[in-house]
Design a protein that fits this description.
- 2 copies of one chain form a homodimer.
- Chain A is elongated, with a radius of gyration of 19 Å.
- Helix content of chain A is 68%, strand content 0%.
- Chain A has 10 helices and no strands.
- In chain A, 36% of the residues are buried.
- In chain A, helix 6 runs antiparallel to helix 10 and helix 8 packs across helix 9.
- By secondary structure, chain A is an all-alpha fold.
- Chain A has 2 domains: 78 residues, Orthogonal Bundle (Arc Repressor Mutant, subunit A), CATH 1.10.10.60; 122 residues, Orthogonal Bundle (Tetracycline Repressor, domain 2), CATH 1.10.357.10.
- Chains A and B meet through helix 7, helix 8, helix 9 and helix 10 of A and helix 7, helix 8, helix 9 and helix 10 of B.
């Protein structure tokens, strides 16, 4: 499947004003769908509830997204823009802020358990090749592995990486730990400090003291 | 919920021969259910298919396990006995074999993607408190964290742990990495070597060379 569906305005070649309106509507639907899926889960979350929140009919909603799984994929891509912001280095050449971004994203996730639950469940389900979000997750992991590998490569180039640590491997294990801690944390929030564990992990990979984040 | 349901023979107070027969039947059902859930997933796997494999009616099967989620919980507990075998130290006082057990379990999992997929999906879904397997997974993670913490404590006591590594934290991160790598691996088996990544992780925690496993 293609995860991003172009807004219908593009397909039908409407005028600019109509296109902007379609884009705005589409964004409102994504925000509402995100709230509903986070609260109720993907399977239980209803299209009718999402449509109600944006004062549309279900048929109107399906004009923008052909089905529930297309809507879900669009919600996830929409959220990825937020995820990407966490990885954006604050200044040029400062790879250390990339690591801090990972910790900040973890701290943010600790404040939104519903979203984390949605993400964990979906990513696991989507490992099945027939799942509607399978291709999305394959591409997403390629992208995130590439992004995190680049951070570790930059750290290596500036002498910040512990000798013998391979950037691509460091990326795979950091992402794996990031994901795996979420399941433990969702099951028992008192028992697991996700930020603390990730910080300890990163500290074993680099030569500088990884700062604590709020 | 209680994950383990006592066999019906116990409840009705039948004689010993009948009890043994019930136990044997129960075991056959668990093996069949495990095969079906691994192949078809939990949701798609049908009770009728499981019943067919053990030449019973669906009603007969439901005499042993009141519903699908009870059967699932019993299947998981049954499998945990196998998991526990991997952690069993080969000789007294040899904590290093505990780490090798983790790698062996990872290598075993690499040969059974259907089971890994089932486990990942279920553990993620079961983070929702209302899920029928929620309590099972909460207890399972407590058990596995305790088991792995004991291994790292024993390693610390014999001077095998890197200075500053805290056994309980090492356990949480090792289990987190173990779980998180599975999702990446299921999505792209070529991109992720689960055993290699876990071995690299463990090597950063201990003072000896962690052996490769097959």
């Amino acid at each position: 499947m293609t995860a991003v569906h172009p807004p219908s305005g593009r397909r039908t070649g409407r005028k600019r004003g109509s296109y902007a309106k379609t884009e705005q509507k589409r964004r409102l639907i994504l925000e509402a769908a995100f709230e509903v899926f986070s609260q109720d889960g993907y399977r239980s979350g209803s299209l009718r509830d999402i449509a109600d929140r944006v004062q549309m009919s279900e048929a109107g909603l399906l004009h923008h997204f052909p089905n529930k799984s297309a809507l879900l994929a669009a919600v996830l891509e929409h959220r990825d823009q937020r995820t990407a912001d966490f990885f954006e280095p604050e200044g040029p050449g400062d790879a250390r802020t990339g690591l801090i971004g990972i910790l900040r994203l973890t701290a943010y996730n600790s404040s939104v358990p519903g979203i984390v639950e949605l993400y964990c469940t979906l990513s696991a389900e989507a490992t099945a090749p027939a799942h509607p979000a399978h291709d999305y997750f394959v591409r997403r992991y390629e992208w995130i592995r590439g992004t995190v590998t680049s951070i570790f490569e930059a750290l290596r180039d500036q002498g910040d990486l512990v000798a013998g640590v391979e950037p691509a491997s460091a990326a795979r294990s950091t992402i794996g730990l990031f994901d795996g801690l979420q399941v433990q944390w969702l099951l028992d929030r008192e028992a697991v400090d996700m930020v603390g564990e990730l910080r300890a992990h990163l500290s074993r990979l680099v030569n500088f003291e990884v700062p604590a984040v709020e």
